[in-house]
Amino acid sequence: MREVKKWVTVAVHKGYEVKTLDGAEMDDEMDYIIEPALEEDKTYSTVGAAFETIDSHTNGV
Predict the structure, then answer these.
(1) Cβ(11)–Cβ(26) under 8 Å?
(2) φ/ψ (deg, to 5) at 36
(3) How far, in Å, are 25, 32, 45, 49, 61 from residue 57 at the CA level?
(4) Could you tell me if residue 46 is inside a domain?
(5) Burial letters for 13-46: b for 16+ Cβ neighbours within 10 Å, e otherwise?
(6) Is residue 50 assigned to a domain?
(7) What's the pTM?
(8) 5, 46, 53, 59: least surrounded by Cβ within 10 Å?
(9) Would you say residue 20 lies in a domain?
């Protein structure tokens, strides 16, 4: 039976959770997501890139 993988929070920035797929393997998504999502179906290669997107959507506040 295949294990169900879950998105887990690795950082919180300005109330947004930055998550990665726990137990990701070669064929799985390796990037990060933001919840609640700011851009539909968007992933980020680094936590820093996710933070920059959050900042741009919150006017840096």
Answers:
(1) no
(2) -65, 150
(3) 31, 17, 18, 13, 9
(4) yes
(5) beebbbbbbeeeeeeeeeebbbeeeeeeeeebee
(6) yes
(7) 0.84
(8) 59
(9) yes
Distance between start and end Cα atoms, the chain: 46
Question: pLDDT at position 28, please?
Answer: 72
Per the structure, the complete domain to which residue 17 belongs is given by 7-57
Strands, E assignment, the chain = 7-13, 16-21, 32-35
Does residue 25 lie within any of the structural domains?
yes
Query: Hey, what amino acid is at 30?
Result: M
pLDDT of the residue at 1: 62
Per-residue pLDDT of the chain (61 residues; tens, 9 = 90+): 667 789 999 999 999 999 999 887 777 778 999 999 999 999 999 999 999 999 999 986 6
Number of domains in the chain: 1
